[in-house]
């Protein structure tokens, strides 16, 4: 997949919820970093009740995605924010078009639906990374921005380590080293797509999960759903990202620890390495992860190694 080049055009899309008045601010942010911004039309709109949680209509949001990928001048397709509604586009995506025009696609949260579909049917690496309105305009801490650009511009090649900053060190729940395809994203979206043509393929994978606004009993139920569906059977290693706003009266860093017994209940007997508290997802900072890429998880090092080039 081609790397994002200096001065390239970047398409701003809103495949899920609206972030009114944010797309033009995002364009200024991109241009201040030397890129040419192309604001796709649906990112400036919001649907009426009862679909006010969506940006444009399904047809308009889909058209924006297709146009952004098809345009040879666009070097990356970057989501404005998450929210709700990406799943509504999956059955109409033109995967043939996407396969013919691979380019960095960046987003997370509700965008997980698109990541899973692209992994299943398009076959190129996509980037679970910070979104323009939700993260970068909101001022999330470094290395949120620099890690994303290092990955999509090709500064991080095969053999490079993705390492959290010292103030965001993860927790080694089960020690070990494992290699596989990195796959996953938002736990609720992974659960929502079980049984569909876009559900997650976890065979021989390093599974990554994160979420926000899911109370601990619901996280437990989601983990149980994936286990019952056989989605943990072929997993080689587990990377647990940020779980925030868990509905308990303590800060997110403390609250995440309450999930660890639930995770160990599901995974301890599987004998796979588990690294938790990894700073990707709805936290600050938000490190970029290359979904679909071959990686090695090393819990003692608290890091991931890229076992392939993700852009060239």
Automatic annotation (TrEMBL):
One of its GO terms (molecular function) is carboxypeptidase activity. Residues 10-129 form the LD-carboxypeptidase N-terminal domain. Its EC number is 3.4.16.-. InterPro entries: Carboxypeptidase_A_C_sf (IPR027461), Class_I_gatase-like (IPR029062), LdcA_N (IPR027478), Peptidase_S66_N (IPR040449), Peptidase_S66C (IPR040921), S66_fam (IPR003507). The active site is at 109 (nucleophile), 210 (charge relay system), 282 (charge relay system). The keyword Hydrolase applies. Keywords: Carboxypeptidase, Hydrolase, Protease, Serine protease. It is an enzyme of class 3 (hydrolase). One of its GO terms (biological process) is proteolysis. Residues 179-297 form the LD-carboxypeptidase C-terminal domain. Belongs to the peptidase S66 family. This is Putative murein peptide carboxypeptidase.
């Amino acid at each position: 997949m081609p790397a994002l080049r200096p001065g390239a055009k970047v398409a701003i899309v809103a495949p899920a919820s609206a972030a009114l008045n944010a797309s033009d601010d995002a364009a200024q942010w991109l241009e201040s970093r030397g890129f040419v911004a192309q604001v796709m039309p649906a990112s400036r709109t919001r649907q009426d009740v009862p679909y006010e949680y969506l940006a444009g209509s399904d047809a308009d949001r889909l058209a924006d995605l297709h146009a952004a990928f098809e345009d040879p001048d666009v070097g990356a397709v970057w989501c404005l924010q998450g929210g709700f509604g990406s799943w509504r586009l999956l059955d109409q995506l033109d995967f043939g078009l996407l396969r013919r025009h691979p380019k960095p696609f960046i987003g997370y949260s509700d965008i997980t639906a698109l990541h899973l579909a692209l992994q299943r049917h398009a076959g190129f690496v996509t980037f679970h990374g910070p979104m323009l309105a939700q993260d970068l305009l909101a001022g999330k801490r470094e290395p949120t921005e620099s890690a994303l650009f290092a990955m999509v511009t090709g500064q991080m090649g095969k053999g490079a380590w993705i390492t959290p900053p010292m103030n965001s060190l993860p927790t080694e729940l089960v020690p070990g080293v494992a290699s596989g395809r990195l796959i996953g994203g938002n736990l609720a979206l992974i659960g929502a797509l079980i049984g569909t043509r876009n559900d997650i393929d976890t065979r021989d994978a390093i599974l990554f999960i994160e979420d926000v606004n899911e109370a601990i009993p619901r996280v437990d139920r989601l983990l149980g759903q994936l286990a019952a569906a056989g989605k943990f059977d072929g997993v080689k290693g587990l990377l647990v990202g940020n779980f925030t706003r868990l509905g308990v009266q303590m800060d997110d860093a403390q609250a995440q620890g309450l999930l660890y017994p639930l995770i160990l209940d599901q995974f301890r007997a599987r004998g796979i390495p588990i690294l938790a508290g990894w700073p990707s997802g709805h936290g600050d900072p938000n490190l970029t992860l290359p979904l679909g890429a071959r990686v090695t998880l090393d819990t003692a090092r608290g890091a991931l190694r890229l076992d392939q080039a993700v852009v060239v």
